[in-house]
Amino acid sequence: MVKACYEKLKAGRCVNNTESTFMVMNPVETWTSREGSSYPLGVFYIKEEDAFNFAIYSKHATAVTLYLYEENSYEVPVLSFDLNYLLHKSNRIWHIRIKASGLKHARYYAYKIDGPDPVNQWTWHAFDKDKVLLDPYAHAVFFPPAFSRVAASVPGPNDGKAPLGVLIREAKKFDWQQDEFPKHEHDLIIYEMHVRGFTYHPSSGLAPEKRGTFAGIIEKIPYLKELGITAVELMPVQQFDVSNGNYWGYSTLNFFSPHHTFASSPDDTGQINEFKMMVRELHKAGIEVILDVVYNHTAEGGTTGPVYSFKGIDNSTYYLINEDLSQPYFNYSGCGNTIHTRNSYVRRMILESLRYWRKEMHVDGFRFDMASIFSRTDDGSAGRDEPPVFEAVSSDAYLANARFIAEPWDVAGIYQLGKKFPGVQWMQWNDAFRDDVRRFVKGDENMMARLVTRIYGSDDLFSDDLPNAYHSYQSINYITSHDGFTLYDLVAYNQKYNEPNGQLNRDGSNYNFSWNCGTEGDKLLTPDILKLRKQQVKNFCTLLFISNGIPMFVAGDEFLRSQIGNNNPYNQDNETNWINWDLPEKNKDIFRFFKKMISFRKSHPSLCRSRFWRGDVMWYGTQGQLDTAYYVKTLALFLNGRSESDQSFYIMINAYWEAIKFKIQENDTWYRIIDTSLASPADFEDNDNEVPVTDNYLVNSRSVVVLMTRN
After folding, report:
1. pTM value > 0.85
2. Active-site annotation holder among 292, 369, 436, 483
């Protein structure tokens, strides 16, 4: 067979599917125009040749066939090309170049790949010659009407039921209008949101076709500017599996394409331009765009999961395989598999994905889901050296100015918050801030010293000593995120209520450090309890925004959005997750407080600094020296703003259940700007209307007071 093929190559023809189908080689053509190029991976259009180049990595494949499909004909390809390794393979990459005129009316493409059976841990293949496979580098994904996860999860054909790559002949020219990357420092305010949930509720006031889309976010930019946030952190927007019930999107199918249902345009590639338009318009408003990316696992799950792409292309390359072959996939993500990021080609895919979103889509930064998984070695153990992914990212010139944020743990036991995390220049989600502030506001004992450390910038974790020289801004301070209670639920529920998720309430954290303020939920809610809940929300808000480090909160917290006590609604595509836009008016007092607090934060660079406060801060108790005894629930601090050409602040915090008088320890002319115990608008005074304060101030129970000097 090989000899026969060689003779045909000598004769100047290459067999495709049948003996009667061949391409005549023009002797003036270059090698790459005849055979295709191994770079770049994926499919790209060569305008000079009016041709498409297809390239796919598979180290262990023995046969690769490219299939092309017309619109409305997804089961039977209009064309197919058997790739001959003597002509269409370079090292581990299979490739072919095809004239556009020879593609008929094809709009979609996919592969079928065959290879050896699984043998051992290092060659645990999952080839299925009948499976239609999605190109990992596709820039847009199409789902046929008969798309089926079930068909991909059992052996045998799934023609007409598999996701397909979109053949983009020439990308529509996008006018970036001299777009520039905004870059925020002390005024960075991160707002975590879900694209669909942000505007899908009818109360959003958007046209039905724009609800839950990138276009919907554009419509809400005036709201984002009014609120004052300067960065949106979008929960996963890379194409994820629409059929496995993961509303949040942590089920990535493809790392190069925007999620298709987030586009209002019905066009196959509409999501690309609509995403770009969203980024461009957010940038015009001075708002950074950060993507929550999931490079630690895929939508293919474990042994019983579907074969969409990576498994069928080269399973042992893309995934970490366990020595125990009865359960072959390492599962450090909790989602069935773990990506093999120590492999050079997998690492290349991640880097090229990051570059694509940065260069072509103008994304400002990335938040890495369960980033500590990258520390796992080939056998699944935690490596001590810098993971190759971090080394590659840190040395990449194009990514040098991008913002990188880590979730510095995984679900299987690696916890690397602070100096333990190998990405030394990355910012990190600080769950120690979350837990310690929650516990203090709740009224737990032995929290005073921890609160001081968190407000200061968590220098116990991000040490600025000579060997380390960390910055305080590397701590992403948050009290709530998508993962857990909303801010209102944190003060309305003692327990989680996750039964709608279908896991018998076993999912989600049992350690929420929440307090319902006297009654569970809203059924027996009284005015006094609601007042206390709002006061606690304002306490959380104030502590978040007066702390050194970068503040982040989840969309809807600013007007008391509730998930009815569900702290893990990952599969709830309903009003549990959709934001109700009637709430800003219903809870306008809290909405006003958030807006004022954000504006206050941005106006005072002495609060968030590149470095720790050091000698500019003094810590006090109610009457003098700071007391850190286990029972103490009061704290005062003086922050001198002169080194930052800013005003100075005296902040008094009382987590007791009764009012306590504080003696002000710093001699200056003080004015009260915030008292969370007061009703709106007195809780946050307008500029030049602050209340003068003398030597003492009675700080009401469970409240925070902020005093400020005049310019």
Report:
1. yes
2. 369
